[in-house]
Amino acid sequence: MNGMLLFQPLLDAKEPASDTAQLPVIMSSSGAGYDALYYFIYWFSVVFFVGIVGAMLYFVWKYRRQKGVKAAPTKDSTKLELTWTIIPFFMIIVMFHVSFDFYIHNAVASENALEVRVRGQRWNWSFQYPNGEGEGSVLYLPVNKPVKLVMSSSDVLHSFFIPAFRLKKDTVPGMYSQLAFTPTREGEAQVFCAEYCGAGEKPGSGGHYSMGAIIKVVSQAEYDKHMQEISGPGDKKPDEWGKELVQKSGCYTCHSVDGSAGTGPTYKGIFGRKENLSDGSSVDVDENYLRESILRPNAKVVKGFENGNMPPFVFTDAKLDAILAYLKTVK
Q: What is the pLDDT of residue 1?
């Protein structure tokens, strides 16, 4: 018998409209199943804890030392030992089977799933849509549309954790991992990194604690509108669009605009200044250098920022021009 049938009444129950005592509101197709399993294991543990501790306290009281009573040696009970071994064993087998069903369900995407590329790097998440456009720190998804996330890391081990979706998956350097789910409720879901990935090189330069993102689940019409918005500047000026691209790409996590120290060089007064490089040479910061640094961050690294680990970004020429126009305005 399929172990999932044991939880069918809970899986068919209506999703809560707000947070529960222990868990946030469910926003994906995975939520009901995981919550059912969680609460089963939770109450399973509570019942056994109360039963075992209660029996222990009772026996401590019943067989306490008393005057005039001589303790007699106890005898082994093979039937009792088999009972308390075999029954929990089969219960654990059922829980494993149900958990594995849930795991497989979220590992295999449907054929028409929306495939989004996710990249983790210290200390932000970046997303690339099927149309080739990308942004950082914010991911838009259409409601009730199957989604497949193809994830990787550009530096160290990270873990993509979405509590409202009840999903978590490690992103590992040098390999791909994936998650499959369907967002079922419009709203915002917080993304965390659930694997410690280091601290900033300098105070205020980011760290594991700051590696977050927001998933915005919206209607199909709003999703289509957003795809159009990120494909072009609309009525924005080049520098305004560039500032928006820099913000959405998570660049402010490492680069300040006020001259303060960070994991990467500050943007303040960056255009036109001379930078000393880690190889002992120097370079004038012009359009060519900025473009190369965005597309190939490790080509010419500024002295003192060798441990920055900036990932390479993929932008169209129009977006690069807009970003350069913005950087020229940061004085």
A: 41
Q: Which residue type does 2 have?
A: N
Are residues 183 and 142 in contact, defined by beta-carbon separation less than 8 angstroms? Answer: yes
Per-residue pLDDT for 193 more than 90?
Answer: yes
C-alpha to C-alpha distance for 228 and 111, rounded to whole angstroms: 24
| CATH code of the region 238-329 | 1.10.760.10
Q: Which two tokens stand for residue 11?
A: 């899986």
Name the DSSP class of 74: -
Q: What's the chain's average pLDDT?
A: 85
Q: Does residue 240 carry a pLDDT above 80?
A: yes
Helix (H) or strand (E) holding 215: strand 212-218
Q: Which CATH class is domain 114-231?
A: mainly beta
Which residue in 253, 260, 255 sits closest to 327, CA to CA?
A: 255
**Residue 151 DSSP symbol:** E
Q: What are the residue ranges of CATH 2.60.40.420 in the chain?
A: 114-231
CA–CA–CA angle 133, 136, 138 (5° rounding): 95
202/264 Cα distance (integer angstroms): 10
Question: Which one has a higher pLDDT value, 39 or 21?
Answer: 39
Distance between CA atoms of residues 253 and 205, nearest Å: 7
Query: Cβ neighbours of residue 99 under 8 Å, at least 6 residues apart?
Result: 37
Taking the mean position of all CA atoms in its chain, how far away is CA 30?
15
pLDDT digits (tens, 9 = 90+) for 259-296: 887 888 999 999 989 999 988 999 999 999 999 988 88
Those residues with Cβ within 8 angstroms of residue 203's Cβ, 6 or more apart along the chain or in another chain: 261
- The pLDDT of residue 218 is above 90: yes
What per-residue confidence (pLDDT) applies to 181?
92
DSSP annotation of 35 reads H
DSSP 140: E
Tell me which DSSP letter residue 316 carries. Answer: -
Q: Where in the chain is the domain with CATH 1.10.760.10?
A: 238-329
Class of 3-66+76-105 in CATH: mainly alpha
